[in-house]
Amino acid sequence: MTLLDRFRTQPQRDPDPAVRLAYLAELPLTEREQIAAAAREDLDPRVRKAAVAKLMDSQALAAIARDDADASVRDAALTMLRDIALDAFEGVDESGSLAAVDALNDARTLAQVAKTSLRESVARRALSRLEQSGGAPATISTTLMASIARQAELEPIRQAAFEQLSERADILAVALQCDFKETAQAAVDRLTGRADLEQVAERARNKAAAKRARQILREQDDAAARAAAEAQAAEDAEKAARAAVEQAARDDAARAEAQARRVADAEAAEQTRQREQEDEQAAAERATRDAAARQEQEAAAQAARDAATEDEAREADRRRLTEEAEARTRRDGLNRMNQLLGRVEALVQKEDLSLKAADRALRDVRAALGDVPPLPSRQDFESVSERLKAAQNALAPRIRDLREVADWQRWANVGIQEQLCEKMEALRAETDPEGIARRIHELQQQWRLAADVPRPQGESLWKRFKAAHDELWARCEAHFAGQAEVRAENLVKKAALCERAEALAGSNNWVQTAEEIKGLQAEWKAIGPVTRGQEKAIWERFRAACDRFFTRRQDDLAKRKVMWAENLAKKEALCVKVEALAESTEWEQAAADIRRLQAEWKTVGAVKKSRSDAIWQRFRAACDTFFARYASRHDIARAERVAAREAICAELESLVAGEQAAEAPAELAAAVRGLRNRWQQELAARGVDREQAAALDRRYADACRGVISRWPAAFAGTDLDPEANRRRMETIVKRMEDLAASLKGPADQAGVSSTARLANMLKEALAANTIGGKADPEARRRAAQDDVRQAQTSWSRVGPVPDEARRELTDRFQRAIRQISGH
Question: Which residues contact 209 (CB under 8 A, 6 or more apart)?
Fold first, then answer.
């Protein structure tokens, strides 16, 4: 017995459902017992469902639809029973369809069969089963019966279902929604309410039903009008009879009165005349009543004539509405015929027309020819009939050709199957089990495409193909068994990896755990495939564990990114502050601020690694820039003071640069005084090297003298006037020379003026704190030093003086100072 035969007899033997499905797909429909066994006994619902799809046994399908544990299998069995009942498979005869109907117990499925089956016996059997499935007829679902009455393909079935309806709402629904003429009209005939009839006349889907409803409404209106006319005529006759009786009574009374008057006593003439007058009055009253009665009769006759006129108008409106409805019906019929003809004529022109579509189109054309609906004109009727006949004549040869092609294809498939048998037999020389299995599947697919062959040749070729297949598959069985063992081992390995990944999924050691999980993923890729049917489950388990860890890490990373961004913003703000202080000259304050910012930098958390070094270098560079300047702050301050003095000198020099001008610039004296004040302020700020200071002093003095000597008139009367300054210098020099002379002995003071001698005496007295007393030499020396300092201060404040006079006076001043210092 081959492997395939063993599978057919015992499909539960192979533990892999995919293998059982593959074997089941190879089973032909003739192997009913094996298919039924798989449908009933297989443990996997998918295999049972696939077997049900190939099972043609109605009783077995009914049992599965009733007893199977899986809902999808039960539904599949129910669907197969329905399809067999509806003749959806080739080779199903009427008895098979009836057996499928008898096996059905679901009311909705039975209703569907009754509606859609084209075999009357099958549809009637389904309807009968539907009546019996609910018990007594009163308990049958009226909804399903109404649906069958509206939609069944066969008229007898629609009528039989319609006869089961008794509720007004169901009958009204059939009249409104049914597309079939006979059933819709039958429903209209059973309606009695005028509101229902008016609703059908306005909204019925079937035009014939709407027409019938309008006809019944007209008949009801006519009957009502006739009854009203008859009632009016009877009333008029009754009124006339009453009037005649009253008249007769009045006549008898008059005759009696006359007889009484004739027999009355002649002597009662006056009474007789009175009675005659009363008779005359009574006659007048009778005449008035008779006239009124005649007027009433004339008015009634006029009303009857008016009613007749109105009835004629209504009848004309009814006729007009009927004619319009009939015209619409004819137009709708023409549209349906044109749509059918358009579809069929397009099919006739198609090059790739299929036999099934051609047969369906030919059936539609023949049905239309057998029942052409009323059309707007005879010309339309003739045109539609001619086109239907032409389409029928065009389809018939195409169908014959297509059938011949199908027959030829079946004959050609015999050759294809012979080639496939040869190819299958040629695989016996192959040694690779995988290659053999792959080629077998390919040949099986090709066999399915060429499966339609004549039955005698097909049976023998299938046995030949099957024999080669079974022989080759037996060779592959051992390979597949070993492969299954390897796959089972791989499944165990991957389950172990899943457990390790699940153990790591809750870790917070992000870096190390990520590397470990990546290692597990690499191991997973190195392991081969697992047992079929388990691939998705084991992979989803492993991926879920990995995703859980990386999702947690991603969430943590997202939080850290927010924190990094906040810290980066803080550090960038600190960089901006330090950079703003880097060029400051407020040394101590700036140093304290930067040290505070450095301490604050240490409190800020980490930033993203790729940005950490750059932001730190920026902050450090700004700090280093300031502290490098801070270390050389004295040199910078000295350079700044030198630069400030050089700038003053440059401004003075710029006043005399260029071509000679005849007139001094405006406000020249004020500008020079301003520069001099700035120079004196700079002199007050010490810190310039002596040599540089001396050079700058000379440069400044040269520049001042150059400006003053160029425009001396501009400085007349100011503290920069050279002549006035020369006189001040001479005064200072004279005072120092007198002081030097006063310090000499009496012999040395011969040439000193009396004023100078008096001044010296006063100074000595002040020094000794006595008048006329002898001065202390030390006190005299200190007083002389004070005078020298005052004189030097005054000398330094003297403005510019011509060079020659300055040199001379400076020599004298220095010489006097030395003389004073020598004492």
Answer: 175, 176, 178, 181, 184, 185, 187, 188, 200
